[in-house]
Amino acid sequence: MAEDKKKNINQVPQNDSNATVESTESIDFEEVYLTRGQLMWRAFKKNKLAMFGMWVLIIMYIAMIFADFLAPYNPFTQNLNHSLKKPTTVMMKYKVPDLKTTMAPYVLPEISYIDKLDYTQNFKTMLFPSRIKVKLSDGTELAIIDKHVVEIKEDGTIVPKYLPKGRKLDERFVLAESIKLVVRTIGYAQVDGQWVQYKDETEDLDALVFGVDDKILEQGRNERITNSRTARSFVAQNEGWKFGFFAATEQEAMERLTAVKLEQALVGIKYYDSDFNEHEISLDEAKIVSYDYKFYPVKWFVKSWGPDKTDPGRVGYLFWVIPLHYHLFGVDNYDNNEYVSINIFGADRYGRDVWSRIIFASRISLTIGFIGLFVTLTLSLFFGALAGFYGGLVDEIIMRFCEILMAIPGFYLLLLLRAVLPIDLPSSQTYMLLIFILAFLGWPGRARIIRGQILAERQREYVEAAIALGFPDTRIMWRHIIPNLATYIIVSSTLSIPGYILGEAGLSYLGLGIREPSASWGNMLTAAQDVYILEKAPWLLIPGAFIFIVVLAFNFVGDGLRDAFDPRALG
Length: 571
What we know:
Elements: E1 4-11, E2 25-32, H1 36-46, H2 48-65, H3 67-70, E3 91-96, E4 99-107, E5 110-114, E6 121-127, E7 129-136, E8 141-146, E9 150-152, E10 158-160, E11 173-176, E12 178-191, E13 194-204, E14 209-210, H4 216-219, E15 232-238, E16 241-247, H5 250-256, E17 260-272, E18 278-282, E19 286-293, E20 296-303, E21 317-318, E22 322-323, E23 326-331, H6 354-365, H7 368-390, H8 392-407, H9 410-419, H10 427-458, H11 461-468, H12 473-481, H13 486-509, H14 521-525, H15 531-536, H16 542-565
Parallel strand pairs: 8-11
Antiparallel strand pairs: 1-2, 3-4, 4-20, 5-6, 6-14, 7-8, 7-19, 9-10, 12-13, 12-17, 15-16, 17-18, 20-23, 21-22
């Protein structure tokens, strides 16, 4: 109990000649008596690493509780368009040939594809037309605007909403349900030294353009993979163009083909009105004056996945009870473009957001240590107390059993116990089994230490006095002996939690713990076993960094608690 005490000392110097007071000095002293808890907190704060570890753990557990709010995407939803997608680049500048302006943060659509020549994973940024302004042959100008990038007010007026800053609506424009670019693809093959045109076909690009290129519409060229529409195809590459060569057999293609090139030219614009009637403007009768592409703003508190979306089987909940409609950050995907996403830590091979999965995986990796520790403490206190307090035959049986378990290598025993269990258990049951397996491995060593400390405490006078007064054994144990072991129990528990986290991560990494589609930091690292994946997608190792940071933080906090409970550190 704190007690404050003040002392005032007045010093009055006397003058021998006139006996007057020349000066008066008042000095205040304040003595503060700290409780044991305050002394322990002061000792803990002196350890800077312990304070750092404590704040790291606080942040991680807050993130675990609010995982649904912090995750911009459903951690179970797959999007193969973003397979092994690298961390998203957030842009701030909008650039087209006649307009360059600074924008609020936004992202562009991206797609992942397999190169058909070398079978490597590649990414392309995509441009979807949002406004194309053309000058017709009669001199009039017309702007074709995608209806998703404007806002229609209640009075019927139309104003730009997702057009770049500084872009106004033209005097004459039409709102289109969608805009498509019509491209004529022409292939040539060199046969007997002569270039022969073997394919002339008009294709519809569905308004997607690979590669962010300001001159894409001016040049009328586009890098594109043309898929075969026959039974067999031969893929060749020359001068940077990629396409599928159509032939009856691969042998026929090889015999005919010595060199190949592909040319593409923009020949027109196709759009659909509100009734989905098709309209096409040929570039023979119109000239492109300017254009804009769609951008997708990055915003705070975005309504994305949740109870109001098309995934009723998995919704976001706040505190596991309240349905959650908004999330901390995300992309305003106003037209539900499947190629748009913001992945601050990239995506895995199934296109799932790595950040969202890390946050949800923390619920398993961060709770398994405390639950496992509770089970371990219960077993070690029970058996250690029995062995230390009663001794004799009870002590011999319990200690020999502990030594047998400790003689078996822990990791191999872990694999053995997990292997005898069904491999196709649901993740919830697997989670509980992992807890009990890890607890089963952890209690013998702690039970031996508790047994030794109880043997020492049992010889003390206060315990002998309690026995002499006739108190029950359980009361002596839990009211007198166990409280004196609190220092060891708290410190050792804090230092042992990382062992449970690493144990679960090891089992899940080997495929014996938490399994897909559920996420834990261990099974997320399973995707990083392939050398090819490590070269192309090193961001899949980020869960390992979280394991490292959390384990280090627990060790720092354990060291700080050890200093706080040390009587010599209390001052």
